[in-house]
Task: inverse folding
């Protein structure tokens, strides 16, 4: 499957997920998009950047206060802030990618 078809597939999947999550808009206040680019090839980084942007756009359109922290802004501190909803009672978080370090999550904090 070429990159163009993958991008379209991912966009459709994101749209479907947001349609399914539309009932949560009444409950959720914030949406966080997180993800690491560490150790990933450039083409994967480019696609993940597009996906993160689409999630952020769709979240904003759905009424969430949206924080796009994909890339260098995905730090241990920001992951914890996202987990606690940045002071909002209801929050949702999306993590894009995998990074190049399989055990780096264990050493955060």
Result:
């Amino acid at each position: 499957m070429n990159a163009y078809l993958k991008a379209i597939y991912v966009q459709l999947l994101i749209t479907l997920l947001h349609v399914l999550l539309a009932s949560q808009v009444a409950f959720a206040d914030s949406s966080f998009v997180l993800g690491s680019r560490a150790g990933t090839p450039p083409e994967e980084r480019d696609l993940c950047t597009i996906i993160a942007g689409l999630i952020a756009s769709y979240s904003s359109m759905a009424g969430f206060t949206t924080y796009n922290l994909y890339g260098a802004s995905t730090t241990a501190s920001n992951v914890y802030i996202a987990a606690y909803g940045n002071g909002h009672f209801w929050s949702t978080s999306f993590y894009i990618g995998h990074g190049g370090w399989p055990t780096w999550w264990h050493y955060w904090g």
